[in-house]
């Protein structure tokens, strides 16, 4: 018997069974390429995929010094992870191991709140990710234009953006394992010059410079948006959890080490940059670390930092595209998108999802840096609010469901943990400009209309969808007591 739509069935029952059938046993008879032979992502590449989903190095943190000065910039990258990054990473570890499959937060929200809100979550997060990814080819060229002036604008720049997008998209097509190990290599290249810069700068450090602050001259909107943009997207890795080797153990471990790597990757360069030279806040803008490197070590170090920045943008592009494309695959497996989105290439990658995401990147690459950051933050905030609600609902509605990793807090403690990041979301939304708010709300409205339209298309059978209908409730695994399943 040819079994179809097993991916959708697996989504609804994370404990491994659907109608008495173990999905691990029927996986081999799915349609399409045999993904069980595709190499899974191990812990080290996963750490660097998370690193590039969230950070990519200190490139882009310069605006925090421009907005608030050295002291608040340094404190921000030490304190903000406790307010936002750690709670988001913990939720990702718990729900990602509870639902170890492609689709990530779409699966979580669908299981907690239903497929309508799951689709809205997927739409907002995918659009936010594509907007974010539109930055990286542009930033890559910005770091190279000082050495290649032709890349500053006009037709050469347009051709370069398209060529770079095509080349990096092809890398995603070739396989997630390749992307993961490329991320490891690019991560080492991106961080090594800052280690060297720190060693060279030791005689020039003046600790008193770190304490400079003027609370009356702080651009709070720029400051918070910069911190938020550089320390979010921890949940993005969840959309490709199905491609991870032993995700129930690997994912929490990788999130822990990636968190340490991200915080150090921001704090150490800021500490060196603000302590080794006199701080002129007006000079602190994107790309300023290359100027700092030139002052501290000379032209050779400046060129190294510029090259590292370019490589970092490549790493962020391929990691983000992997997350975005596997999210579309996961949504198609759940019947939220037409079935052709779930097709895999012979390398096990979501071919249609990659092409769709690449097209979005090209269409949005004309936006300015500030508009991109503000717009993606706005959409991301709405998605996180839905995610928080889904997390609490799953805790309350299915307290005994299997959780291979569980946040070491009760339900009440988990809700209290979410209060600071929720307050932060409200502040970020309130500080958005009218233009960004209008465009973002328009994008959200598109999602509210798009879901019933796709449902209509499905009912009319104009396009083929994997599965239609509501998701069944989560089931408690048959083996062991409920208490033993809490983890």
Automatic annotation (TrEMBL):
InterPro entries the UniProt entry points to: AA/rel_permease1, RMV1-like
Keyword Cell inner membrane in annotation: no
UniProt entry keywords in alphabetical sequence: Cell membrane, Membrane, Symport, Transmembrane, Transmembrane helix, Transport
Pfam families, alphabetized: AA_permease_2
Single GO molecular function: symporter activity
Transmembrane segments: 43-61, 67-91, 103-120, 151-172, 178-202, 255-279, 351-369, 375-395, 407-431, 437-457
Lineage: superkingdom: Eukaryota
GO cellular component: plasma membrane
Subcellular location: Cell membrane
Statement: the UniProt record of this protein carries the keyword Cell membrane: yes
Lipid bilayer topology: Multi-pass membrane protein
Family: Belongs to the amino acid-polyamine-organocation (APC) superfamily. Polyamine:cation symporter (PHS) (TC 2.A.3.12) family.
Name of the protein in question: Polyamine transporter PUT1
């Amino acid at each position: 018997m040819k079994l179809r739509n097993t991916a959708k069935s697996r989504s609804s029952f994370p404990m491994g069974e659907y109608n008495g059938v173990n999905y691990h046993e029927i996986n081999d008879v799915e349609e399409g390429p045999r993904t069980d032979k595709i190499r899974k992502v191990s812990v080290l590449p996963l750490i660097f995929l998370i690193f590039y989903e969230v950070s990519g190095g200190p490139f882009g943190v310069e605006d925090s010094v421009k907005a608030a000065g050295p002291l608040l910039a340094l404190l921000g990258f030490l304190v903000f992870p406790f307010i936002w990054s750690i709670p988001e990473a913990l939720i990702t570890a718990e729900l990602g191991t509870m639902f170890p499959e492609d689709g990530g937060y779409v699966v979580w929200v669908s299981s907690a709140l239903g497929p309508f809100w799951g689709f809205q979550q997927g739409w907002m997060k995918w659009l936010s990710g594509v907007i974010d990814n539109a930055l990286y080819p542009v930033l890559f060229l910005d770091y190279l234009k000082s050495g290649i002036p032709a890349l500053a604008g006009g037709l050469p720049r347009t051709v370069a953006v398209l060529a770079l997008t095509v080349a990096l998209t092809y890398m995603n097509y070739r396989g997630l394992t390749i992307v993961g190990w490329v991320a490891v290599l690019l991560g080492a290249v991106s961080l090594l010059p800052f280690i060297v810069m720190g060693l060279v700068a030791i005689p020039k450090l003046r600790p008193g410079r770190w304490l400079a602050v003027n609370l009356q001259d702080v651009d709070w909107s720029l400051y918070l948006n910069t911190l938020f943009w550089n320390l979010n997207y921890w949940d993005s890795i969840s959309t490709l959890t199905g491609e991870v080797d032993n995700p129930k153990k690997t994912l929490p471990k990788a999130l822990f080490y990636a968190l340490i790597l991200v915080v150090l990757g921001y704090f150490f360069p800021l500490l060196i940059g603000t302590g080794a030279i006199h701080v002129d806040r007006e000079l602190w803008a994107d790309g300023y670390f290359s100027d700092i490197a030139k002052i501290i070590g000379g032209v050779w170090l400046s060129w190294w930092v510029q090259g590292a920045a370019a490589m970092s943008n490549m790493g962020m592009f391929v990691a983000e595209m992997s997350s975005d494309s596997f999210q579309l695959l996961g949504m198609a497996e759940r019947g939220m998108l037409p079935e052709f989105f779930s097709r895999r290439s012979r390398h096990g990658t979501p071919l249609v999802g990659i092409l769709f995401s690449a097209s979005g990147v090209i269409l949005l690459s004309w936006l300015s840096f500030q508009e991109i950051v503000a717009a993606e933050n706005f959409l991301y905030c709405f998605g996180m609010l839905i995610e928080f609600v889904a997390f609490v609902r799953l805790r309350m509605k299915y307290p005994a469901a299997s959780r291979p990793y569980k946040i070491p807090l009760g339900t009440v403690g988990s809700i209290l943990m979410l209060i600071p990041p929720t307050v932060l979301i409200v502040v970020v939304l309130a500080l958005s400009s009218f233009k960004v708010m209008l465009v973002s709300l328009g994008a959200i409205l598109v999602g509210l209309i798009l879901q019933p339209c796709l449902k209509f298309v499905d009912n009319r059978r104009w396009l083929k969808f994997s599965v239609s209908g509501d998701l069944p409730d989560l089931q408690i695994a048959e083996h062991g007591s409920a208490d033993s399943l809490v983890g």
